[in-house]
Amino acid sequence: MLKKVLANIVFSAILNFFTRISCFYSVRLNPKTFLYLLFSKKKDVFLRDAIIGSGVQLDSGCSFFNKPEVFGNVRIGRYTSISGPSTRICAEINEVRIGSFCSIASGVIIQEFYHSYQRTTSYSILSKFFKNSTSKNSDKISKGSVLIEDDVWIGSNAVILSGVTIGRGAIIGAGSIVTKDVKKYTIVAGNPAKEVKIRFSGNTVMELEESKWWTWSAEKIIQNEIFFTRARF
């Protein structure tokens, strides 16, 4: 345990000194993740009390706060913000892909796999009692990748389940359980999550889609303040 603590202190110090990745408080990194971040040339990544496992890929401008946990085949786009505590994003069979400029609040669970309820037991019995088995069976199954497009806001304590795609500009209400795809620019809420309203008119959606603002450079964004601050309907 002490070795891991010391290793993470060293990892954070190296990233703070040699890269544009800022690590604060007790950031915990898998050694492979540390090497990936060290040589990836990502810029302006902010990690505070984050727990990041192997396989995770981050783009420039990402921010992690207050102990979110991210593990496995997870890809996160530019400037996406993930807050804890109790936020967990994990993938083991397929991938979780999160776009740019997304906002993920505390207590959110995004999980690409789940337990099978069609076998004798839903318990993880294979990994507990059959560790040396040559069978390719797994305790975990998946309905497919979780795909979260750009500019999605996920409220506190929402759960995003396996195989779901959430369209660009969508908003997921706090406490929602998302079991099906969510259309672009749609607000959903509830258990299971259902459509509450569409954020914008068709013309506004068309304007936003044509602009592709989520691909703009930081410099271009700064030059277009009015584009981002005016009300849209």
UniProtKB/TrEMBL annotation:
Transmembrane segments: 6-27
One Pfam assignment: Hexapep
GO function terms (MF aspect): acyltransferase activity
Cited CDD domains: LbH_XAT
InterPro entries for the chain: Hexapep (IPR001451), Hexapep_transf_CS (IPR018357), Trans_hexapeptide_repeat (IPR050179), Trimer_LpxA-like_sf (IPR011004)
Superkingdom of origin organism: Bacteria
Family: Belongs to the transferase hexapeptide repeat family.
PANTHER family registered for this protein in UniProt: ACETYLTRANSFERASE, ACETYLTRANSFERASE RV3034C-RELATED
UniProt-recorded name of the protein: Acetyltransferase
Organism expressing this protein natively: Pelobium manganitolerans
